[in-house]
Every structure is written in C-alpha cells, then in structure tokens.
Amino acid sequence: MPDTDARITAVDTYDIRFPTSRELAGSDAMNPDPDYSAAYVVLRTDEAQGADGHGFAFTIGRGNEVQVAAIHALGHHVVGRSVAALCADPGALYRDLTGDSQLRWLGPEKGVLHMAVGAVVNAVWDLAARRAGKPLWKLLADAEPEWLVRQADLRYLTDALTPQRALELLRRGRDGADGRAARLLATGFPAYTTSPGWLGYDDDKLTRLAREAVADGFTQIKLKVGADLADDIRRCRAARAAIGPGVKLAIDANQRWEVAEAVRWTRALAEFGPYWIEEPTSPDDILGHAAIRRAVAPVKVATGEHAANRVVFKQLLQAGAVDVVQLDAARVGGVNENLAILLLAAEFGVPVCPHAGGVGLCELVQHLAMFDYVALAGTTEDRAIEYVDHLHDHFLDPVVIRAGRYAAPTAPGFSAALRPESVARYTYPGGTFWAADLDPTGGRTA
C-alpha cells in the first residue's frame, strides 16, 4: 500500500556523458562530433520501500553542466511535495514549473530551462507509473479522458484545439483500445533505424549496416545529409542499392540549409526516392518549412525534434508546413506538453513519428507513441519510432527490438532509470571513466 504521507526529499542531479564522438556515432552535418549526454535527475522520496522518479534532458556534451544547473534551479518547487498528490496530478507541478515568474523569463517555455522542466516532469510521471505498477504507456492509455485533458497543456492552443475537442478525440480513442493494447503487446510498434546513416561513416560501413538493418526486419532507414551534395548523391546511391526499392529511405539535413538550398538539394536527391526530408532548415522557420513542403512534394517534410514547444507545433500544422510530426520526449516540457502535441497531430490528421536515439530517447518516446496508438490515433499506419542501436545497455529497462519493431515495455515506469554502475562510471568529470580519461598522467604516479 503506497504511503499517503510520503514526501519528495531530494532532487538529485548528475552530469552523464558518453564519448560517442570517438566512434562518430551520432555525427551529422550540423553536429559532427557529439558526445551523447544526459542531464539526469532522480526524485528521492521517504516512502518506505517506495520508488524514486527518474528523468533526464538529452544534450550532446559541452554545456551539459548548464542543463544540470537548470534542473537544480527547479528543485525548490519539488522538495517537500506530497508524493501522492504529485502523482495524482503531475499537471499541478508542471504549471508551477512553467509559471515560475522569475525563471520563466529565461524562456519563456523554450531552451535550457524548458528542457529542465521536461526532465523534472518526466521524472514525476516515471514515479507515478511506478507507484501504479504500470508502464507509462499503459498508465496513460487507462486514464480517464477528462483527467488527460486536465494534464495536457492546451494554453495558447485553443484557436486550433479546444479542451472540448481534445476530450472528444480522447473519448473516440478509447473505442477499441483494449484490442489495440493486446495487439501492441503481441506484435510491438513499427520502428525505423538511423544506425546505418551517420555522416561520419564511410560507404562500406553504411552499406554493411543498411543491409543488416533490412535483414533485421526494418522497412525504413535514414541517412544524414547536407554537408556536400556530391557525397550525398554517392551515399544515397549506395544506400538504395543496399536496401532495394521496397524499403523506405528517409534523409535528414539537421537544419543545415537555407530554404531555396533545401529545395535544390532535395530535388537533386529525388532520384533515390526519399520518403521524407527531415529538418531541412531552421526549426523555428514555420513559413520556410511550408515553402519547402510545397516545392519538394511528393517527398514529405518531417520536423519537430527541435521545436521549442507546443505552440511551434501548432503553427507548423496550421501553416501546412509538415507531413510528419517528430515530437521529442525530452525537448519540450515533458509528458504534459507532449500530450498536447499528440492531440494537435490527431486533430490535424498528421502522423507522429517520434525522434529518438541519443541517450535514452528511445526508452522514453516509445511510451508516447504507444499511448497514441492505443488510446488516441488508433493506428500505426505511416507511423514508426526512430531507433538507434547504442547506449541502451546503460538503462535498467532498455528498449527491445524484434523484427524491426519495438516490443511494448511491461515494467512499471517510464523506462528512464540508468544503471547505478553507469552513473558511477560516466558522471562528468569525476566518474571512473572520465577521471581516468582526463588524467594527464594516465594514472601514473611519480
């Protein structure tokens, strides 16, 4: 029986960094040398034999300490709070965090501070799901529509999506939900893989990994593009030859291009049948995305992993600027804001293919996509979750891929908890890996 008097006693933060730049994993035209990192937060409680809550913001190395500091700055809103009340209404804390009259100035609702809000809010949802004994996707799918509407942040969205319409969408989504949940548990959720396509990989490695992906059951792969057109033509030709005509090939420019350049470049790669062009220009340029979409059709335009908040998604959808919504579990203000983004996508009839990879993004975002399938959109048509095959072994409940599909998590929580030994090894700069790596003596003593 959960302790109704339990309180949050501490908000512990950790600067976790992995040296992925040394293998060029994660490399793209805008980010050639990322060290995948997590500003990791653990909500401690005084509940007897109770669970902690785990969350994080994803970064790519330098500056992760800034993200950790932003999470720390929010702690006074959390410590001392009733665990039962927090889990019954995560939205109350979300509103306190986004409404802090001084910290809000640093956004508002964007950037490092807003990502910190997301990390803390996601940790609350992890705690709530653990206390309920359910994986997060199931906690959300089982929730009453009225409660979910209260949790979703619909502020500034009512010109596109009213609370009443959100309630209608969620009530409609409950029809057949039990059957979809059973199918999800039996067959999983479609995935696509970016693992073959990092820009730093040579053609032989790209070809080998692309063939392996198809053999493993993936029906879509993604390549990073945007640094050099001649290289991109060569690499796309090699990828298409490796995967054949029946597998989708998406391309991702990671914000590299001007609008006109994006149109020219995408058209130059059209012979290889790209399914979508991802982040062709600045993530803030709504009208630029709309212009690109008109010009490159039938190639789809996908974006959203760097969209600062739900209002940007609203405008992308209102402007007809996007064919594929790529929400991110750790970029915006956590589950509460991502509920609003999922509802917006459902209202506009645009499929959601979440951004993943990084450190733990696959682990988190699978829950959001699976809830969307079971209890909102009701379909996996034109939908897939990104998958990148690294760093999963550092999590207590890592993703499982079978035949190109995500297996539905069954362990309680948000799948966000890192292994204690990984925290001890990769905390920067004092963890055992980094202490040895940064030691100018190489561990030698005089």
Topology overview:
Layout: E1 8-17, E2 37-45, E3 53-59, H1 64-73, H2 83-88, H3 90-99, H4 111-132, H5 136-142, H6 145-151, H7 163-173, H8 177-187, E4 189-193, H9 203-215, E5 220-224, H10 229-243, E6 248-252, H11 259-268, E7 274-278, H12 286-296, E8 300-303, H13 310-318, E9 324-325, H14 334-348, H15 361-375, E10 385-387, E11 401-402, E12 405-406, H16 420-426, H17 432-438
Parallel strand pairs: 4-10, 5-6, 6-7, 7-8, 8-9
Antiparallel strand pairs: 1-2, 2-3, 4-12, 11-12
Helix pairs in contact: 1-4, 3-4, 5-15, 6-7, 7-14, 8-15, 9-10, 11-12, 13-14
Domain Mandelate racemase/muconate lactonizing enzyme C-terminal: 203-299
Keywords: Lyase, Magnesium, Metal-binding
GO molecular function, one term: magnesium ion binding
Q: What is the assigned CATH homologous superfamily of the largest domain?
A: Enolase-like C-terminal domain
- What is the CATH domain class of the largest domain? Alpha Beta
Radius of gyration, taken over Cα atoms and rounded to an integer in Å: 21 Å
End-to-end gap = 57 Å
CATH architecture of the largest domain: Alpha-Beta Barrel
Q: Give the overall pLDDT as a whole number.
A: 95
In the residues, how many domains can be counted?
A: 2
Percentage beta strand: 5-15%
Unreliable segments of 5+ consecutive residues:
none
List the secondary-structure elements in sequence, H or E: EEEHHHHHHHHEHEHEHEHEHEHHEEEHH
Q: What name is given to the CATH topology of the largest domain?
A: TIM Barrel
Characterize the biggest β-sheet: 5 strands, parallel
* Helical/strand content category: alpha/beta
- C-alpha geometry: globular
- What proportion of the residues is helical, as a percent range? 40-55%
